[in-house]
Amino acid sequence: MNRLHFTRGTNGKPVASEELEKALSSIEGLTGDCFFGYPLIATPEGKYFLDATLVTREKGIILFDLVEGTNVGEYVSRHDDLANKIEAKLKLHKELVKGRHLLPALHVVTFAPAIEDVGRIAQKGYSIANAEGLADVIAGLSWEEASEELYRQTLSAIESLSSIRKSRSKREVARPDSRGAKLKRLEDSIATLDHRQNRAVIETVDGVQRIRGLAGSGKTIVLALKAAYLHTQHPDWRIAVTFHTRSLKGQFKRLITNFCIEQSGEEPDWTKIRVVNAWGAPGGDERDGIYYEFCRVTGQDFHDFRSASLRFGGNDKAFDGACSAALNAARLPPPLYDAILVDEAQDFAPSFLRLCYSMLREPKRLVYAYDELQNLSGASLPPPEEIFGTDEQGRPHVTLGNDSRRDVILQKCYRNSRPVLVTAHSLGFGIYRTPTKNTETGLVQMFDQPALWEEIGYRVREGELRKGSRVVLERTDETSPRFLEEHSDIDDLVHFYKFESEAEQNTWLIEQIAKNLTKDELRHDDIIVIHPDPISARERLGPIRKALFERGIQNHLAGVDTDADVFFKTETPSVTFTGIYRAKGNEAGMVYIINAQDCDTSGMGLASLRNRLFTAITRSKAWVRVVGHGRGMEKLLDEFDSLKSRDFRLDFTYPTDEILSKLRVVHRDLSPADKARKERNIKGFDQTIDGIVSGEIDLDDVAGSLNKLNAEKRAELLRLLEGRK
Amino acid sequence: MTVPQTAQRTRDDLTGLLSSLIERGVADDQNFPVLRRLSEDTWEVTFDGADHVSIAMGDIDYQDLHRELGDKRSYSVKLIDGGLLQLLYLFKGDALVKHRLAFYPSPNLRSFQDDPDAYMRDELFIEIVSRRIIPFPLRFDYDVEVARDMVHPHCHLTLGDVKGCRIPVSAPLSPRWFIEFILRNFYQTEEHDFVLALPGHSLTFATTLTKGESALMHVVVPYETCA
To answer: A696 and which of A33, A142, A683, A691 could share a cystine (Cβ 3.0–4.6 Å)?
Structure first.
């Protein structure tokens, strides 16, 4: 039996790599993981990477030195060099060392598929093989200390060679049980990438790659490290990393810099790897953006926010319109990039992804990461076949098929504990929302494909995960690690409060913040206060900020001129206040979501309101408080209580196709013009009814209009009327 | 040691004003006003972070200057459109000897009045601006020591950071008058009246305009109307 898993990074030796994969796959009795172009390590002589690294249960570690062509060069000294460097790195892991001896066996093999008679050049004690001889060479290797546990530790050590996650700055704590101390322990334990993340970093495919993942599953880190990895392996490539929220820019720059320095010992070359806004504007490198560059290079009209919103409509329509207009104009740009990585793709219209695609050199390496539920505008991203269109024969330009390398899902959530994440999903989908009159389900939205639930890390506990069936879903310890929730009581992790009024809510909030800072040992930047409605955030947050200011508690509002990197100001202690847009891409230990009642309505656009709530809740690294007042808050509280009483499991009947399509219509967002028209029509109808009731309009007068109804609508109307009797 | 009355009242005046700006959502960030003793009888009303303020005098590009002030948080308050206000007062005993009240609008963003709704609704892409912004900083300086009749009025208004521009001003400005001046001219719109919400006037400074200066075109601080 052979169970080898391959992670294909780049090493500049594609032919030999392919031959090696083929040869290894046919060898019996090997299980483990093989990484191409990995790990990268910084050495005193500069950056260094392995052609291929194989970690197996049976033989320990085998480092491969690949030779394309027939010249093996000084392969003996390369062997020594490789072994010494990797041994030095691995010896830093205490669990892999006994005395001064490295426990996992460390072998080096030169693989030279183009050389027929390797025996002629082989030197004693230094393995060299071609495809035919590889099995024999490997059979000759041994690992005496082999054990399952040691194998796992070795694999994890190899994978952690590219870990760079570090908390923002040191944390001072005096009491071991304070919130500050708990947060410190959490930050220390989330230190390395997991297997899937690591694989997503290393593997880039020719063509389009999609990375889906939950909030907090590390999409941004994966994208940043991927960009840094590609930059290190291909220093001449022009690479762009782009995003929707400006505050991500600082994070990306920091992560890429750290990775490059730790893995290659070199600063990134920012003229080659560019961290740029999606939109951009004239005014130098800092302000540059993908769309602006497109316009600049093709000589087309550039629209800034103002001119785009005047021309195409406000908010999301503005950028979509600008991108579409640019693409529709005659000339496409010459290839500008070798790879483009897009974060938060859920917030872009397909036109922006098409624009990126058009700027890429063949084989068009576009990587986009997204989380469906964090979409704040209500329009979700269609599948790639639709996004990128079809050729003359009607074949899609891009299709991901069932290739798990092209369609990556990160299912482990490292930011939110299980109760917090399930709460976010429960409210985001309206799992326990009471159906209104005339509706079959309280659900607000639902994945079209039931299987997606398992892919994002849920497990079926009861029932069946298929349309029309009742199902009970829960998260597993694997996908929601226990340590994230064990530090605090469940009631403390996530709590909902309903107040009598906004003023009462605000008074409570101010007290809580003061307590967090004085008693709980939280830092100012551990706290975010989110008002989910972006439009009224400024006004409604004002009085709270004022009260804190008057108590001497520094705070700021994340605004347009809040510089990317100082969204959280570690050197100046300041509590962050924000609307939902600028909360995205950020996280903090304690998250307060205030005026949550606004996220429950019987009107239009409930899906995007619930997505706001979802996004807000998932900002929390540890604790979250959802507060508000009035009827809306009461309903949210009911939903949360239902969830809690079911031990944070999602128990619901999966909607049928018919209901699913209704959900899409009912809760979708209308454009302001559509909304106004609909409201006008309803009002007009209402007036007509008033007229009939008062006798001002005779029923005979409207009989003609009623005749326009077809049989189906007629029956529906009758049902409705009879139901009221 | 007694804290001089006027200095304390100046600090309190400023604190009340910042409160109001925060409450109305026109201030995004701020530093607490502080009253600091510099020597035996010199007192300063300033803000945390004022150590870096000296760079504002240097000969650097406005774009860099604005960014530097922002990064170092060298301001009393940062307004909704990235405009920065610095208020600094220096007292000897109870007498005001110097003030420096500056407004640094953002060189990258449209002014608030240009698109008030987009700012109040906190739209996401307001920073995407292609039009060249012509930022126009202004400053009210008061300095007893260097004052020279007609040439360097005690209190003067400098427009656009032009060296020789010293428009005479009748008296030192209280924080209240300075903030009102900025709000009324650069932030007031038909829908948004931030001035109305400001706390009342609580501080008056005596006239320092000389006879010669009063014969020139000059700016009057109308203390008598609000006394």
So the answer is: A691
Interchain pair A562, B19: CB under 8 A:
no
Q: Is there a contact between B80 and A538 if contact means CB atoms under 8 Å apart?
A: yes
* pLDDT tens string A353-380: 999 999 999 999 999 998 877 766 656 6
Q: Do B130 and A559 touch (CB under 8 A)?
A: no
Q: What is the pLDDT of residue A667?
A: 59
């706290």: which residue's tokens? A527
| Residue A132, beta-bridge partner list | none
Buried/exposed A286-317: b ≥16 CB within 10 Å, e otherwise? ebbbbbbbbbeebebebbbbbbbbeebebbbb
Q: Is B117 on the interface with A (CB under 8 A)?
A: no
B187-221 pLDDT, tens digit each: 999 989 999 999 999 999 999 999 999 999 999 99
B22 touches chain A (CB under 8 A): yes
Q: Do B124 and A574 touch (CB under 8 A)?
A: no
Closest-CA distance, B129 to chain A, in angstroms, reads 5
For residue A564, the model assigns a pLDDT of 47
**Per residue in A669-715, pLDDT tens?**
544 455 556 667 777 888 888 888 888 888 887 877 777 788 878 88
Residue B180 has phi, psi (to 5 degrees) of: -60, -40
Closest CA to A232 of A339, A155, A369, A158: A339
Q: What does A243-289 look like in DSSP terms, one character per residue? A: -SSTTHHHHHHHHHHHHHHHHHSS---TTTEEE-BSS--SSSGGG-B
Q: Are B86 and B100 in contact (CB under 8 A)?
A: yes
Name the packing angle between helices A315-328 and A350-358 (round to 10°).
Answer: 30
Residue A319: closest CA among chain B residues belongs to which residue? B125
- The complex's ipTM works out to 0.94
Contact yes or no for B28 and A562 at CB 8 A = yes
